[in-house]
Design a protein that fits this description.
7-stranded mixed β-sheet, 9-stranded mixed β-sheet
């Protein structure tokens, strides 16, 4: 017996169907009661029940097709109320037509027509009240039980802020007790949203914190630049707030809806001074939708995010390829969970394995290839240049050749700022990959496009997770040089810009992403220590360890002779490239391949320098 009342989809649907039937019965009887001033003639009783039966026949199916039995009761919103209005209107139009043509009241003969309109209004009101009841109840309970929750101020009174507040009010387990909003938009000052007022601007956070005894901050500005976010965080810290949550940028939110589960602790990536990136999602959708897409290196930081972003644009088939079996399993599971209707195939494979790659291309015929597979760790590749060359150079060449043979439409090569005037093996091999793409683009229908950008935040083995681990251990935080600078970009932003570059590329281009202003690694270390609740150089020491082999103090995005040409996207530029001679490239690659087979590290470096004249190895030959 208790199982009958267990909360399931079936019991919820049955509850609302029963509630709507009761609403129809009450509404129609009440309509006749009002029409006849409380004294319904006895000969109309049968008419009332006939009208009720007809109304139920129309109301329940129409409500069902408008999804009024498959919504979340706790999160009912204006969209459900609009659907209810449409469904009620359609139901009563059908009801009116049925009564008009019935044999009992032909052409409304002897029928009180006003009862149709009154009962229509009453059904809408009562069905709406039932659907809103849980939110109203939750709102009252929240006000009564707010003493055991933390008083929270929401920064941002836009769509994201409204959605977060709605989630808080609807969730009985939410740890937040919202007191109001702050927003810099002058039009929103004093506006009331779900009963809570916009109390001031962001600069008023210290005053509001004191006056309203605020204990926690939620920053709901997913489209704002990080200068605004940093200002709110700094003011929150000055006010003594230890708990600061933030909604992620829109590029990281799968369906555009912000909920409490999206909220995360403020991270250094939110404070790096990067401005909002504008993406032409329609252009990307036209590029991806309905096409089979292959992503190499799909288990890596860039490849996995490319896979997530590509999945949003509905490819006909998503092919994931990587050597890392655990990583490829994890990203496959994640995508199958979040995109259950998407067809996904996963492969554990090496891009240098010609037979394996050819077999995948023959069977699945990808039309778009994102080549993100690469060895990227600079010091490690300095020690093992043969592996860097095999994977980053000849793996790219192998994949490019097979792409041409299988009529791939576009091949997008993920490059790096370290390819510019390279001082590392990794950078030189990436520059070689760009040259391969330029030459392969000259002689076939496949369009080869390279995209060059800097460091992505939180990628595996990058500085941020390393610093985080060092802080967790109590320090010291190790910085190579006090003047070391790097470009940084959110992984989601970088991947969307890569996809847009692929969409607008005509073939042969090297696109350069605007990485914003470079960030001093020392400043980054200090900010991360502060975010962890410590004081730099007091609680956690910062030490300087010296520049590592192959590193530069400052990365360049372009060579001096290249320059850029603007594109339709203000964050994407196109490098002006010198022509690459196919004969020279083939000759240099043959020499390089020979040295790799001989496993002579010094000669591999020499062959790379011959292939890439701008490559100046600063450390390797002195190292051994």
């Amino acid at each position: 017996m208790p199982n009958m009342f267990k909360r399931t989809t079936v019991t919820r649907t049955a509850f609302f169907v029963l509630a709507d039937i009761i609403s129809v019965v009450i509404a129609i009887w009440l309509a006749f009661f009002l029409r006849f001033d409380g004294n319904i003639p006895a000969y109309y009783f049968l008419s009332v029940w006939r009208m009720i039966a007809l109304a139920i026949i129309f109301v329940v199916p129409v409500f069902y097709f408008h999804k009024l039995y498959s919504f979340s009761w706790a999160y009912v919103s204006t969209s459900e109320m609009i659907s209810l209005f449409k469904a009620t209107t359609i139901s009563f139009v059908f009801l009116g037509i049925a009564i008009y043509f019935s044999k009992y009241f032909p052409y409304f003969s002897n029928f009180p027509r006003s009862t149709i309109f009154v009962s229509y209004f009453l059904v809408f009101v009562m069905s709406g009240a039932v659907r809103l009841s849980k939110r109203i109840y939750a709102r009252v309970i929240k006000k009564e039980n707010g003493f055991n929750k933390e008083r929270t101020l929401i920064v941002g009174a836009g769509d994201a802020g409204e959605q977060i507040l709605r989630n808080i009010l609807s969730s009985k387990n939410s740890p937040y007790f919202p007191v109001g909003f702050v927003d810099d938009n002058p039009i929103k000052q004093g506006v009331v949203i779900h009963g809570l007022k916009v109390l001031g601007r962001i600069t008023d956070i210290p005053r509001i914190t004191i006056n309203y005894q605020v204990k926690q901050l939620i920053i709901a500005l997913p489209s704002a630049g990080s200068k605004t976010i940093k200002s709110a965080v700094d003011l929150g810290r000055e006010s003594g707030l230890k708990k600061i949550k933030i909604a992620p940028p829109m590029s990281e939110i799968i369906n555009g809806e912000v909920s409490l589960k999206n909220l995360k602790d403020i991270g250094v990536e939110d404070l790096l001074g990067r401005e909002k990136v504008t993406i032409e999602t329609k252009e990307i959708e036209n590029f991806i939708k309905g096409r089979p897409v292959l992503i190499t290196g799909a288990a890596g930081s860039i490849g996995s995010e490319l896979s997530r972003q590509t999945a949003k644009f509905n490819p006909s088939l998503l092919l994931l390829l990587d050597q890392d079996e655990t990583g490829i399993f994890n990203i496959s599971q994640e995508l199958q969970k979040n995109f259950s209707d998407l067809k996904i195939k996963s492969f554990v494979a090496d891009v240098n394995d010609k037979e394996r790659i050819e077999d995948i291309f023959r069977k699945f015929r990808p039309k778009i290839v994102f080549h993100a597979a690469a060895y990227k760790h600079v010091p490690l590749m300095e020690q093992q240049p043969d592996e860097a060359v095999k994977n980053n150079v000849f793996g790219t060449k192998n994949l490019a050749r097979i792409s041409i043979e299988n009529s791939v439409e576009k091949f997008i090569f993920i490059s790096t700022d370290k390819a510019v005037n390279p001082t590392s093996v990794m950078g030189a091999t990436k520059r070689a990959g760009e040259l391969i793409c330029q030459v392969f683009n000259q002689k076939n229908n496949t369009k080869f496009i390279s995209v060059r950008f800097g460091n992505v935040l939180n990628s595996r083995g990058s500085v941020i997770p390393i610093f985080r681990e060092q802080i967790k251990r109590g320090g010291p935080v190790e910085v190579t040089h006090r003047d070391m600078k790097r470009y940084f970009m959110l992984t989601s932003e970088a991947c969307l810009l890569v996809m847009q570059s692929g969409a607008m590329g005509k073939g042969g281009e090297v696109f350069v992403l605007d990485m914003g202003e470079p960030v001093k690694i020392l400043d980054l270390a200090r900010e991360m220590i502060k975010l962890s609740g410590f004081t730099p150089d007091k609680d956690i020491a910062i030490v300087f360890t010296g520049i590592r082999p192959g590193e530069k103090l400052f990365e360049e995005i372009l060579t001096a002779e290249e320059g850029t040409v603007a594109t339709q996207n203000q964050k994407i530029f196109m490098a002006k490239l010198s022509e690459v001679k196919k004969e020279r490239l083939d000759d240099e690659l043959t020499k390089l391949e020979k040295q790799v087979k001989n496993m002579d590290r010094e000669k591999i470096i020499g062959a790379l320098q011959s292939l890439i004249p701008s490559y100046k190895s600063e450390s390797f030959l002195q190292q051994d």
